């Protein structure tokens, strides 16, 4: 037989890593990680994976900080395609769920355009898991029957203002700490009640998790006093009211100002 053997194309799996703890990964996510030859990982989600993959696995950190993206999305897309074209089994490990503000759709499109086999493994979104860690159900019978999920850095739309005005809707804001003053100002000017409950849950499902409870009219000042920092999830709505489920929120590490 003559000629060179054809190189086998690898594959890319976009894996939702959930809010951080390894044991909140799905079984499918864990299986793919244990078989991966390359792991391209974000800043959030399970970051302590080095002890759980083989010593020869290439781990590439492409994590973004607010306002600082050292590896632009186009380069991440090229990285996934390049490693898969080299015949590697690539896991793109993302925080939360790949399709909830995770740019998973862009990465799937890039792989498909390059002829790379790609699949998506759902993960537990921080929009649900982080409030839950603080005892906040984003829906609760008789309190909230709908959820509106917002990308904090985006402009505040009429749809978001409508959700904030509706006391039967929970608004969950991801990546919103830096944008909180703008969001609050727009909401108050649009007639959202100043006494609407707000909870900011920092580092949900981690040992240093904490929750700051406030109201829409006071939360910017209260967040400054508490020194709130990313990563955090902001919950606006009646489900964020202190004492809804937990009789003494301070026992759960809440800050009530």
Automatic annotation (TrEMBL):
For whether the record's keyword set contains S-adenosyl-L-methionine, the answer is yes
Fetch the CDD domains from UniProt. SUMT
Which one GO biological process term can you cite for this protein?
Answer: methylation
GO MF annotations in UniProt:
uroporphyrin-III C-methyltransferase activity
Q: Which UniProt keywords apply?
A: Methyltransferase, Porphyrin biosynthesis, S-adenosyl-L-methionine, Transferase
Q: Does the keyword Transferase apply?
A: yes
The record ties this protein, via InterPro entries, to: 4pyrrol_Mease (IPR000878), 4pyrrol_Methylase_sf (IPR035996), 4pyrrole_Mease_sub1 (IPR014777), 4pyrrole_Mease_sub2 (IPR014776), CobA/CysG_C (IPR006366), Siro_Cobalamin_biosynth (IPR050161)
E.C. numbers: 2.1.1.107
Name used for this protein in its record: uroporphyrinogen-III C-methyltransferase
Q: Which PANTHER family match?
A: S-ADENOSYL-L-METHIONINE-DEPENDENT UROPORPHYRINOGEN III METHYLTRANSFERASE, CHLOROPLASTIC, SIROHEME SYNTHASE-RELATED
One Pfam family per UniProt? TP_methylase
Which segments constitute the Tetrapyrrole methylase domain? 14-218
């Amino acid at each position: 037989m003559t000629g060179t053997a054809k190189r086998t194309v690898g594959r890319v799996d976009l894996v939702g890593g959930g809010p951080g703890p390894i044991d909140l990964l799905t079984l499918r996510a864990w299986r793919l990680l244990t078989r991966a030859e390359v792991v391209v990982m974000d800043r959030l989600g399970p970051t302590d994976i080095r002890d759980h993959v083989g010593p020869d696995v290439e781990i590439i950190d492409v994590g973004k900080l607010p306002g600082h993206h050292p590896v632009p999305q186009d380069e991440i897309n090229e990285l996934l395609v390049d490693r898969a074209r080299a015949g590697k089994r690539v896991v793109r490990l993302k925080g939360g769920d790949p399709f909830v503000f995770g740019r998973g759709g862009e990465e799937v499109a890039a792989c498909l355009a390059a002829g790379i086999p790609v699949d998506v493994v759902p993960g537990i979104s921080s929009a649900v898991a982080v409030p839950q860690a603080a005892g906040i159900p984003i829906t609760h019978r008789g309190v909230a029957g709908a959820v509106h999920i917002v990308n904090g850095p985006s402009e505040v739309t009429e749809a978001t203002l409508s959700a904030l005005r509706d006391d039967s809707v929970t608004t969950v804001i991801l990546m919103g700490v830096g944008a909180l003053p703008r969001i609050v100002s727009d909401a108050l000017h649009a007639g959202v009640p100043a006494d609407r409950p707000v909870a900011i849950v920092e580092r949900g499902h981690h040992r240093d998790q904490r929750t700051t409870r406030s109201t829409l009219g006071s939360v910017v000042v209260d967040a400054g006093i508490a020194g709130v920092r990313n990563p955090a999830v902001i919950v606006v709505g009646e489900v964020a009211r202190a004492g809804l489920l937990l009789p003494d929120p301070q026992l759960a590490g809440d800050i009530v100002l």
